[in-house]
Amino acid sequence: MPVVRLRAPLAELAGGNRELELEGATVAEVLQALEREHPGTRGWILDERGRIREHVNVFVNKEYGQENTPVTPGDRLHVIPAISGG
């Protein structure tokens, strides 16, 4: 299964888990599995259409990923929310 790596505060929304193994053949399927298993993350990464929110970046094995990017067992997905402030 692909491994999803979360940074705070997303890890806190996932019960304190920084790394999770989740099933899915695409980035979108893996992120949907994350929302099913950890409902606290719902709406923070994917919008109501199932698209990655524009303030969130997802990388698959250090390459920029989109919803339809294929993933295989052992792939590493890094979910990185934008940080703002002044």
Describe, in plain words, how this protein is organized in 3D:
- There is one protein chain.
- The chain is an alpha+beta fold and 86 residues long.
- The chain contains two helices and five strands; from the N terminus they run βαβαβββ.
- The protein has helices at residues 10-13, 27-37, and strands spanning 3-6, 19-21, 56-60, 63-65, 76-81.
- The chain has a five-stranded mixed sheet with strand order 2-1-5-3-4, with helices on one face.
- The longest helix is centred in the middle third of the chain and has 11 residues, at 27-37.
- The chain is globular.
Average pLDDT level: 94
Report the biggest beta sheet as strand number plus sense, adding barrel if it closes: 5 strands, mixed
Low-confidence spans: none
Question: Biggest sheet, strands in spatial order?
Answer: 2-1-5-3-4
Taken from the alpha-carbon principal axes, the silhouette is globular
| CA-based gyration radius | 12 Å
**Span between N and C termini?**
39 Å
The tally of beta strands, per DSSP, is 5
Helix content: 10-25%
Return the string of H and E elements. Answer: EHEHEEE
Structural class: alpha+beta
Strand content: 15-25%
Helices, by number, come to: 2
